[in-house]
Amino acid sequence: MKVHVHTTASNYDVRVLRDGADPTVVWEANGLAGEMHETPSNSYETGCGWPVSFTVPVESCWQPGFYLIILSMQFEGRTYEREGFFVVRRHMPAGRPAYALVLTTSTLVAYNDWGGANHYRGVDVPPHADSPAPRLSTMRPIARGLLRQPPGAPRASNPDTPGPNFIPRHPAYEWAHTHGYSRHASDAFWATYERPFVVWAEKHGYELDYLTQHDLHDDPDCLSGYSCAILVGHDEYWTAEMRDRIDDFVDQGGHVARFAGNFLWQVRLEENGTRQICYKDPGLDPMFDIDPAKTTTAWDAPFIDRPGAATMGLTGLGGVYNRFGATTPRSSGGYTVYRPNHWTLEATDLYYGDVFGGAPICVAAFELDSVDYTFRKGLPYPTGSDGAPTNLDIVAMAPAVAGEIDKWKGAVPIGAPIGEFSHVTAAMFGDAMPDRFQGEFYGAGMMATFERGKGSVFNAGTTEWVNGLIHEDPFTQKITHNVLRRFGSRNGD
Question: d(Cα 133, Cα 112) in Å, to the nearest integer?
Answer without folding.
Answer: 11
